[in-house]
Amino acid sequence: MPECLCYIFHNMANEVYGILSNIALPVNGDTYQTAAPDDESFLRNVITPIYNVLRREARSNKGGKASHSKWRNYDDLNEYFWSGKCFKLGWPMNLEADFFLHSDGLPFANQRNNQVTVRKRKLKVNFVEARTFWHLYRSFDRMWMFFTMAFQAMLIVAWNSGSLRGFFDKDIFRKVLTIFITAAFLNFLQGTRLFLAS
């Protein structure tokens, strides 16, 4: 998750700058302290909690059979770091933050003091994708429209002149401009489909 990596990087860079400069923390005025070297600290305190969230959510999809609205996928977890909500995680990360709440409602193991607490279910709060028969078209609608109009323009040029030079003939060029009528019709069909779907 690139946004998550940026969040970690900026917090670590700020921490290193604070240690090197020996400046006060913005929250409580204390200075940064260098801890005793611990080779597994970053793995235990940063990587493992994020990995546990990803693993739990990946298992919640039940091999792709669970409803898309019942579990948080890669995009949902990544979107968390797009907003100011990510600053509630703090640094070092607060394992009580809502990012670490799981969508399946199962107990969450607190790695620091080995307690198991039951957490409130964390639902998806952003866009929930509804998978329909139109999903393939909807995902690529601009591409299909471009292909349709390009095919129409190439067919008109080939039918009327047989060479690309014919495109610059004013009568053929007027005929090629009918692709905008085709574009309007395709947009009308798309709007109709969206209206009927809602």
TrEMBL record:
Specify the domain of life of the species encoding this protein: Eukaryota
Q: Does the keyword Transmembrane apply?
A: yes
Start and end residues of each 1,3-beta-glucan synthase component FKS1-like domain: 1-94
Its keywords, alphabetically, are:
Membrane, Transmembrane, Transmembrane helix
Q: Where are the transmembrane segments?
A: 143-160, 172-189
InterPro entries for the chain: FKS1-like_dom1 (IPR026899)
Q: Which Pfam families match?
A: FKS1_dom1 (PF14288)
- Full protein name: 1,3-beta-glucan synthase component FKS1-like domain-containing protein
Organism for this UniProt entry: Hibiscus sabdariffa
